[in-house]
Write a structure and sequence with these properties.
By secondary structure, the protein is mainly beta. It has three domains: 139 residues, no CATH class; 101 residues, Immunoglobulins (Immunoglobulin-like); 104 residues, Sandwich (Immunoglobulin-like). The protein contains one helix and 27 strands. Strands 12, 15, 18, 19, 21, 22, 24 and 25 form an eight-stranded mixed sheet that branches. Strands 4, 5, 6, 7 and 8 form a five-stranded antiparallel sheet that branches. It has a four-stranded antiparallel sheet with strand order 14-13-16-17, with no helix packed on it. Strand 13 and strand 14 form a beta hairpin. The radius of gyration is 41 Å and the shape is globular.
Amino acid sequence: MTEDENTLIISSDRSGGFGETDLYIFHKLPNGEWGAPVNLGRQINTKYKEAFPMYDEKNQTLYFASEGHTNMGGFDIFKSQFDTASQKFEPPENIGYPINTPNDDMVFSLAENNRDGYISAVMNGGFGDLDLYKVVFNDIESRPTILKGIVSSSDGTNKEMNATVSIKNAQTDKLVDSKKVNLQSGRYIFAVDPGKYILKISSPDYADFEEEINVYDKSDYVFEIEKNILLKKTGDASSSIKDASKTDSAKSLKTIVRGAIITTDTLQNQIDVVISVLNAKTRQKLEGKSANTQIGKYFFDLFPGTYILTASSAGYADFEQEITINKTDQIIEIEKNILLQTNEEMDLSIKEKLVKTTVKTTVKPKVTPIKKTTKPVKKPVKSVKKPVKKKAPAPVKKKTKSTTKKK
């Protein structure tokens, strides 16, 4: 509720919402009674749970917890600025790590100095389920990127994942951070500055996993990189990890796939987009990143193979395209721009296609009468045998004796 007690925002599971629980706003009427609740819309509410709203009236910012949007796991805390011109809340932003973690982070309140905040969260070393913590916001010039993912076993039998994730600086070989993954979910999360790192996962009875990760800044900056890891049992022939630079089969360098994120909705200033790379055969998610249209760019480093590039955002139709990376001994780049259409535009285009294919102008065909051409039937003619005249025998010449006179 605002300080003047004229505006109230609540979370409710009433019918007509977009998800399990939605955020609604009430305004007090001149007679002192509350007006009808107004749903904050798809911009804020998802098909999951939105809860614990807290409105900062001074900065006109709404803080709330959500299981949807660009989420790290469980409930995350998001903020949304109120636009006085349109009288609507702008697309929410994840306030990031370390406030948000793979566990539930639910209630957030900002102090008047805009530097101190208080959260209710589940963290290691706490005294109970949800504990209260104080956070201090420091001005940081470089923008850290969230590196997160899920570690799971290839056989699917391990319900609890006992694994350690570590990252090292690829140039100095210095250990940057190391931690255990969440035992139940297998999730891990790091906040890393721009640079090149070696991500390593180790677990008893499983082969170690290693992969080089590039974290970019400036025009190639992304808020979040997702790396899901599938560990294989020790002794599995396919589980041996080899340095790509030392194997003949992997001499091919990675190809950089990058592009722009474009929306057909030109009035939209910024939307959060989740971009993922899937295995084309199994459709297993290999890597995912969170970006937005204000940054306007994305990138992936991919080895040769066939992949499916996907992009999704609330209120927009899902994007999906297959890409093939060929083997190469040179570093090359492939540009793939992503065009997102609103759900309304996609529905309209589908309807137009259906109309074009099903509705056709019916013109009566001109029927030209076919003249019956009957050939006259020839009557059979009886063959009449004409009498054959017998030829008279040729006269026989009588032989005359030749007389010769004697002189």
